[in-house]
TrEMBL record:
It holds the Pfam family Aa_trans. One of its GO terms (cellular component) is organelle membrane. The lineage of its organism: Eukaryota, Viridiplantae, Streptophyta, Embryophyta, Tracheophyta. This is Sodium-coupled neutral amino acid transporter 2. GO terms for molecular function: L-amino acid transmembrane transporter activity.
Length: 371
């Protein structure tokens, strides 16, 4: 779960820092929703998120959950692929070009282009990694990706402390500056990013089932392409780019695993798991990979994927479904506190996302009219 919770903070550090107050308020709800899922899976001997939904709402509940997971994870995989393109090949936003790793080293060539680089990484990295049928087979790559994330964070903190001591940057603000209705509504544009960052529920049961025991899990760039005005700036830039790119690449198969698993359950609900069906496994894997690659190449902005998944199916998986399972309480184990918390979760989720979608639509219309 750690790798999924880190990603939003890494790529949109400035955004999540600005909205720190929202993050701190949503974390208790996140922990509560995961705890509810695990607790309500025990009486019904459920081994997955889908089993818990099926136990509470029958086949229709399970199918609805699987559809949401498939949609969410297709969006998440596309997000990861777009980030990989941005970091390795560079990106252009609002007329400003940010050079990627290869472009910074070798210049703008045909083989440093986004589509070509993504195809090469897919051929030599993604395809071998998605061939594993069990998520515990990815434990070593997951450990490496976590270490790389720590490297990124340590470098980021080190550079920030150095520049704060030097006085070349302002002290970070802990609270947003809200001086109008528009600025207040803009706070909620962080919701899709935070939902994508903290959504780990579809892997909770899979990881727990494949652990040797059930220990308590510990809590655990936007383009460094300019002169940081610190010693060894160029070397630090390269370390940040490389560690972050490798981190994203190694996370990819962990997001891909539940996507493939739930799509298989949707298309072949009465068949045995695809672990014993190599042809079905191969066709599902390649079909999804081609779909996600196409989305990453042709979708112009990562925000489209964030807003599509985070503000819709993401919030259902993160808050609404766990709360609905608790309110359904088919095994009569929910306390009054559980049900009250579930109602709060649903209200907060619906309100935040309605405002977020309104704010995003308002910004889009305003930008269009301005241009």
């Amino acid at each position: 779960m750690v790798w999924e919770m880190i990603i939003g903070h890494l790529y949109y550090q400035e955004l999540t820092t600005t909205h720190q107050w929202r993050t701190s308020k949503e974390l208790p709800l996140l922990e509560a929703s995961v705890e509810m899922l695990l607790r309500f899976s025990k009486p019904g001997s459920s081994f997955s998120y889908g089993d818990v939904m099926g136990d509470a709402f029958g086949t229709s509940g399970r199918v609805l959950l699987q559809i949401c997971i498939v949609i969410n994870n297709i969006g998440a995989v596309i997000i990861y692929l777009i980030i990989t393109e941005d970091v390795i090949s560079g990106s252009t936003s609002s007329g400003i070009h940010h050079a990627g790793i290869l472009e910074g080293w070798f210049g703008e060539l045909w083989w440093t282009g986004r589509a070509f680089v993504l195809l090469v990484i897919t051929t030599f990295v993604f395809i071998p990694l998605i061939c594993f049928k069990r998520i515990d087979s990815l434990r070593f790559t997951s450990a490496i990706s976590f270490v790389l994330a720590i490297v990124f964070i340590v470098v980021l903190i080190g550079v920030t402390i150095y520049k704060l001591i030097e006085g070349s940057i302002k002290t970070p603000t802990w609270f947003p500056n809200v001086d109008s209705t528009t600025s207040f509504l803009n706070l909620f544009t962080a919701v899709p990013v935070l939902v994508c960052a903290y959504l780990c529920h579809f892997n909770v049961h899979t990881i727990e089932n494949e652990l040797g025991d059930s220990p308590r899990m510990q809590d655990v760039l936007s383009n460094f392409d300019t002169n940081l005005a610190v010693p060894y700036s160029s070397i630090i830039n390269n370390i940040v780019h490389i560690s972050y790119a490798l981190h994203i690449i190694l996370i990819f198969p962990i997001i891909f695993h539940p996507l493939r698993l739930n799509l298989d359950g949707l298309l072949f609900p009465t068949e045995n798991p695809f672990v014993s069906h190599n042809i079905r496994f191969a066709f599902l894997s390649m079909g999804l990979l081609v779909l996600c690659l196409s989305g990453a190449i042709y979708i112009p902005s990562i925000w489209i994927a964030f807003e599509f998944t985070g503000a819709t199916v993401g919030v259902m998986l993160l808050f609404i479904f766990p709360a609905a399972i608790t309110l359904r309480d088919c095994h009569s184990i929910a306390t009054r506190k559980d049900k009250l918390l579930s109602i709060v979760m649903i209200i907060v989720a619906l309100f935040s996302n309605v405002v977020a979608m309104y704010s995003n639509a308002h910004s889009l219309l305003y930008d269009s009219s301005s241009s």
